[in-house]
Write a structure and sequence with these properties.
Elements lengths: L3 H7 L11 E4 L8 E7 L2 E8 L3 E6 L4 E7 L4 E4 L2 E3 L3 E5 L2 E7 L2 E9 H6 L5 H9 L3 E5 L1 H22 L9 H21 L6 H19 L7 H8 L3 H11 L4 H19 L7 H7 L5 H12 L3 H11 L5
Antiparallel strand pairs: 1-4, 2-3, 3-10, 4-9, 5-8, 5-10, 6-7, 6-9, 8-11
Helix pairs in contact: 3-5, 4-5, 6-7, 6-8, 9-10, 9-12
Length: 319
């Protein structure tokens, strides 16, 4: 859960519906995402780098399509399924991406509505518009490798010609004429090489999602492993295994991280000079301030008071 400046730095080409974006830091440290952009409406290409593990969820804006692939051997999951070096993810419905450790990620966003409006409907575009699944993940090394290399060359070309900063407005013929045919080739991969989650993984993801909903509905209450087990109808030991497989954490570790992210987001959004950390912390289910402060510093690399001080300085409330 991050403030707007952090969301803008996460990139994803602005493909998501405003207000639907949710992101939580899962690993300890100072989260410092970076992204570069190549904008050639109706295409938007981004290169995103993350120094820590995180989870992001969002709804995709109507008419837009997002393709994503890793530019590293990092550990990542797309809707709970592992994403490999030769996998490509696609969606026109929702985003659900989680990573472990540092990762680099390429995303290509196509605005289908703009393509129609501008009369740029080629056979490759029609293939994408008519055959792309709502959410998909495919292992397609024959398609992913040239696509990744083409994106790398585009960024390298622009850097070489224009210096360190990547300009917007790269001619559509350069981006679209190169990437759209390659992306159209991947559509067949979603049919013939689709990554189908095992029944075991599907059950685990369903249990974790149910628990996440329960956690959000009870942010200010004491939540036990038994409560989560009852909510999703899965035995406690099986639930622990499910969380470990899908998130890399136990249910209670994951709950703590979600709540700590909630506190930080609330502090960053605060515009009231009288905001008290203890009030925000208890609203997110923390009752022992000493333990809370230590956990907060351990995850984010700063104390809650330092977070709040930065906000007040930004708003001019501190001299």
């Amino acid at each position: 859960m991050f403030s707007q400046p952090f969301r803008e730095r996460l990139g994803f080409g602005g493909a998501y519906v405003p207000g639907s974006f949710s992101c939580a830091q899962l690993e300890a440290g100072v989260f410092d995402p970076h992204h570069d952009d190549l904008s050639a409406t109706p295409l938007h290409v981004s290169r995103q780098s993350f120094n820590l593990g995180f989870k992001v969820e969002a709804r995709v804006a109507p008419g837009k399509m997002l393709f994503g692939l890793l530019d590293s051997r990092a550990q990542a999951r797309w809707f709970g399924s592992p994403v490999g070096q030769y996998a490509i993810a696609a969606t026109r419905d929702a985003i659900d991406l989680s990573t472990k450790g540092s990762a680099s990620f390429y995303s290509v966003v196509i605005d289908g509505s703009a393509l129609h409006r501008d009369g740029m409907v080629s056979p490759d575009v029609i293939t994408l518009l008519e055959n792309l699944p709502d959410v998909g993940l495919a292992n397609a090394p024959l398609h992913v490798t040239p696509l990744r290399e083409s994106i790398r060359r585009l960024f390298s070309l622009v850097r070489h010609r224009h210096g360190a900063l990547l300009p917007r407005g790269l001619p559509l013929a350069v981006v679209g004429g190169t990437l759209v045919p390659l992306l159209a080739d991947t559509v067949g991969g979603f049919r013939s090489n689709a990554v189908e989650p095992s029944r075991s993984l599907t059950r685990r993801v369903r249990a974790v999602r149910t628990c996440e909903g329960y956690m959000r509905e009870h942010v200010d209450a004491t939540v036990t492993l038994l409560d989560l087990s009852t909510a999703c109808g899965v035995r406690s030991r099986s639930l622990i295994n499910a969380f470990q497989a899908v998130t890399g954490f136990t249910p209670m570790e994951y709950l703590k991280r979600l709540r700590l992210n909630g506190v930080r987001d609330s502090l960053r959004r605060s515009e009231n000079a009288r905001t008290r950390i203890i009030d925000v912390a208890t609203a997110w289910g923390f009752w022992h301030m000493g333990h809370f402060a230590a956990d907060y510093r351990g995850l984010f690399g700063e104390s809650p008071s330092q977070t709040l001080l930065k906000v007040r300085r930004r708003h001019g409330a501190v001299a």
